[in-house]
Design brief:
single chain; about 90 residues; mainly alpha; two-stranded parallel sheet; 3 helices; 2 strands; about 5% strand
C-alpha cells in the first residue's frame, strides 16, 4: 500500500513492538500511535528493555510496560507508612 501512495493509519497495537520485526517491509509506511515504544531512547527505557530481554528473552511491548508501571506504583505505595486513622464525629 505504501508504494501505491495509500497511507494506512491505526492504533499502535497494529505495529506492536514485539511483532514488528516479523512484519518485515509490509510495515514500512504504516502510521500508528501508541503510549509506548521499546525504541524510546531514554536511559530509563534502555534499562527496562535490557532487563526485560534478560529475563523474558524478547523486547517489551505496551502490555509489558503497563504491567511494570502498575507494579511499580504498588511497590512505591507499600513503601510509604500507613496513614494514622482519625476519629470522625
Amino acid at each position: 500500500m505504501n508504494t501505491s501512495g495509500i497511507k494506512l493509519m491505526g492504533t499502535g497495537d497494529m505495529t506492536d513492538d514485539d511483532m514488528l520485526d516479523a512484519m518485515g517491509d509490509a510495515a514500512i509506511g504504516v502510521i500508528t500511535a501508541h503510549q509506548y515504544s521499546a525504541a524510546h531512547a531514554s536511559a530509563t527505557n534502555k534499562s527496562f528493555v535490557a532487563g526485560f530481554k534478560k529475563v523474558i528473552g524478547t523486547r517489551p511491548n505496551y502490555v509489558a510496560v503497563a504491567v511494570y508501571d502498575g507494579m511499580r506504583l504498588i511497590y512505591e505505595a507499600l513503601k510509604k507508612p500507613a496513614a494514622t486513622p482519625t476519629a470522625t464525629n
